[in-house]
Design brief:
Elements lengths: L3 E6 L6 H11 L11 E6 L5 E4 L5 E4 L11 E4 L7 H4 L5 H7 L7 E4 L4 H6 L7 E2 L6 H7 L4 E2 L5 E3 L3 E4 L4 H14 L1 H11 L26 H8 L8 H7 L4 H12 L3 H19 L4 H7 L5 H12 L3 H9 L2 E2 L2 E2 L1
Parallel strand pairs: 1-2, 1-5, 5-6, 6-10, 7-8
Antiparallel strand pairs: 3-4, 9-10, 11-12
């Protein structure tokens, strides 16, 4: 099967860290025969040649913008030299000509401020999007037709995905691998990259706040306790008791540390447990629902439909068909 081509668009001022993320994440997955399932290439908006970075070195790019016509997915990393794209919300003639090579239906993704390119090209009009929390307000002012969410690590809106700053690009790329080939493949890539396969919460936990008293307790023990009992009913009071806190204090501390409420976090963990069991076991849907703590298959169906846009049966059919090295080939 022909590998899915990922084209990374490198522009002057590109941040080397963000530029390297797609190559690291998409360069790892293999099928059952050991063949790469992604083909990752880098291109410039000009003919092949050097592209400046924000560091003290340039990179030599071997492909010009015409390679964008071959892309199944295009990823735009952050750059500090977007110029009128960042300042005025308009494409340069050179960038517009490069993007004209895109085929209809190409999946688009941005890392950090790469979102400005997608926004200026009109791909985000009427859609939700995110970027680095420090630029979210500016993005919203410049592009009022976009629904900017400054709190999340990434947003998947089907054929257009956007991520928050820097390392959130890893979360986004792992999510794309998970969406394309399942949890097991994404988890293996995460293990080899020595990063968590899924981070809790959103950007709220990274925004500067006064440093908490080091003597204050955290909610780590409660989270570990809950993860070992996802198949059981878990009340907020139960979690607060693990930290010897009142429910009010625990809820506030949990949101400060994780970025979402305890209830939202529990639902996320149960969805992930259900995905894993649907992919890796022959348990019935009812059994998976019980093991993941949803109680009934109807409840699990509603939560998976909300989180993933598919039913448990459809999810299993997608990620158990033709599995090789834990993924779909």
């Amino acid at each position: 099967m022909k590998p899915h081509r990922v084209v990374v668009l490198a522009m002057d001022g590109v941040l080397p860290f963000e530029l390297g993320i797609p190559h690291r994440i998409f360069g790892r997955p293999r099928d059952a025969e050991g063949r790469r399932v992604y083909d990752v290439v880098t291109c410039s908006i000009r003919p092949p040649g050097p592209v400046r970075t924000d560091a003290d070195f340039a990179i030599q790019v071997e492909h010009g913008p015409e390679i964008l016509a071959t892309a199944d997915t295009v990823i735009v990393p952050a750059s500090y030299e977007f110029g009128p794209v960042f300042e005025q919300g308009v494409l340069t003639d050179e960038l517009a000509a490069a993007l004209a090579h895109l085929r209809p239906g190409t999946r688009l993704a941005s890392i950090c401020t790469g979102v400005y390119v997608l926004a200026a090209a009109g791909f985000l009009d009427g859609r939700p999007a995110t970027t680095h929390w420090a630029d979210a307000e500016h993005l919203q002012r410049l592009f009022p037709r976009i629904d900017v969410d400054p709190d999340v690590l990434f947003i998947d809106d089907g054929d257009v995905l956007t991520s928050a700053g820097v390392a959130a690009g890893i979360d986004l790329c792992l999510h794309i691998v998970r969406r394309d080939h399942g949890t097991a493949v994404a988890n293996e890539v995460a293990r080899r990259t020595v990063v968590p396969p899924h981070r809790d919460g959103g950007q709220a936990q990274y925004i500067h706040r006064p440093v908490p008293d080091p003597q204050q307790a955290t909610t780590t023990t409660a989270r570990a306790w809950a993860l070992g009992r996802l198949h059981e009913p878990i009340q907020l009071r139960d979690m607060a008791d693990q930290e010897a806190m009142s429910v009010r204090t625990f809820t506030r501390r949990f949101r400060e540390e994780v970025g979402i409420s305890p209830g939202q976090w529990l639902t996320q963990q149960r969805v992930e447990r259900a995905r894993h069991l649907l992919e890796s076991t022959d348990l019935s849907v009812d059994q998976v629902a019980h093991a993941a703590g949803f109680g009934t298959s109807q409840s699990m169906r509603q939560h998976l439909q909300t989180a993933l846009g598919v039913t448990p049966t459809a999810y299993r059919r997608t990620f158990r068909a033709g599995v090789g090295v834990g993924g779909r080939t």
